[in-house]
From TrEMBL:
Keyword tags: mRNA processing, mRNA splicing, Nucleus, Spliceosome
Quaternary state and interactors: Associated with the spliceosome.
Family according to the record: Belongs to the SLU7 family.
Protein name: Pre-mRNA-splicing factor SLU7
Lineage: Eukaryota, Viridiplantae, Streptophyta, Embryophyta, Tracheophyta
Region of interest called Disordered, as start-end residue ranges on this chain: 21-44
GO molecular function: pre-mRNA 3'-splice site binding
């Protein structure tokens, strides 16, 4: 028995139960209410709303689907880093022989190793650390920011502000040196105007962007399958953004079909247009020209060779398949040449420059030939 709420029902009661469930799904009857007074969605399956038998549930509910078992010992707090508890004046028995703290031994001591430890000198006794133990829940164990103090980020901001201030001060000193060399005889008012000019020049210098970065606006960083999961380089866009997309070349409903999943348009969207004026002829034009046709022939050769018993596989050993295809073409040309030569030796070459014999042209000659009885 799966649940305690499932009991024996007659055929009539079962039919009424089904009718009631259908009415609840259609919204004609009010939804069923659980033990806590909450409505149960009638579209929820019975195996979800029926509680297991060991919970001794008298009626369907969703209480067992919720987080009903919570441990009060779980906490989201974190270790108090760097906290000290008690600072002793004398060395205590069982303490660390190096620093004198009771919370660890000499093997796990993080203080500077002393030539003569605190056990023998009885000086520079380190305070005891604050030892804490927590019972973290599933989320608490995996929280990467647990125990992070946001106030520590102010130190990072101060470091960057100090760097910017030092850079600004250095640039101002360099600019003032240049102005002093150019204008040695200027008065104080002229110096004030120079400071204003310097501030404007400094703003321009800070707003300047590297030209090499501006020229690389068409590059897109692409993460590929590498061992470390990093990027192996940049991949340029396949289409310049100023060009019209191929699915916008012809907005007619009956024009070439565009597949949005593969972004392919096999047919020519503008077949009646002058070929010299259009830049896109359809994906079939690329599939039947250039190295795509050679790759197709290479695949066909690998398939036919495999069917004839050769151990060739295009995906498993592409270099081997390409080399075998190369040798196949060379041998095929040799066989063609040998066949041609044998045919010419047997039947002659009608396209040669040698004049044909008269008897072949006229079909008769004046030469007399005698045959014996055997022919």
């Amino acid at each position: 028995m799966a649940t305690a709420s499932v009991a024996f029902k007659s055929r009539e009661d079962h039919r009424k139960q089904i009718e009631l469930e259908e009415a609840r799904k259609a919204g004609l009857a009010p939804a069923e209410v659980d033990e806590d007074g909450k409505e149960i969605n009638p579209h929820i399956p019975q195996y979800m709303s029926s509680a297991p038998w060991y919970l001794n549930a008298e009626r369907p509910s969703l209480k067992h689907q919720r987080k009903w078992k919570s441990d009060p010992n779980y906490t989201k707090s974190w270790y108090d880093r760097g906290a000290k508890t008690f600072h002793a004046d004398k060395f205590r028995k069982g303490a660390c022989e190096n620093c004198g703290a009771m919370t660890h031994d000499s093997k796990g001591c993080m203080e500077r190793p002393c030539k003569i430890g605190a056990k023998w000198t009885n000086k520079n006794i380190a305070p005891d650390e604050k030892i804490e133990t927590f019972e973290l829940d599933y989320d608490g164990k995996r929280d990467r920011w647990n125990g992070y103090d946001a106030a520590t980020y102010a130190q990072v901001i101060q470091r960057y502000e100090a760097r910017d201030e030092a850079r600004r001060k250095y640039l101002k000193e360099q600019q003032l040196k240049q102005l002093e060399t150019k204008n040695n005889n200027q008065n104080q008012e002229g110096g004030d105007t120079d400071d204003e000019d310097f501030e404007d020049a400094l703003k321009v210098d800070e707003a300047k962007v590297d030209e090499s970065k501006q020229m690389d606006f068409a590059k897109v960083e692409k993460r590929v399958r590498t061992t470390a999961g990093g990027s192996t380089g940049t991949v340029r866009n396949l289409r310049i953004r100023e060009d019209t997309a191929k699915y916008l070349l012809n907005l007619d409903v009956n024009s070439a079909y565009y597949d949005p999943k593969t972004r392919s348009m096999r047919e020519d969207p503008l077949p009646d247009m002058d070929p010299n004026e259009k830049f896109y002829l359809g994906d079939n034009q690329n599939r039947l020209s250039g190295q795509a046709l050679e790759f197709k022939q290479l695949n066909i050769h690998a398939w036919e060779a495999f069917d004839k018993g050769h151990d060739v596989h295009m995906q498993a050993a592409p270099s081997q398949a390409e080399l075998l295809h190369k040798y196949y073409k060379i041998n095929k040309e040799k066989l063609k040449g040998q066949t041609k030569e044998s045919m010419m030796e047997r039947y002659g070459n009608a396209a040669a420059e040698e004049a044909l014999p008269r008897e072949l042209l006229l079909g008769q000659s004046e030469r007399e030939i005698e045959y014996d009885r055997a022919g």
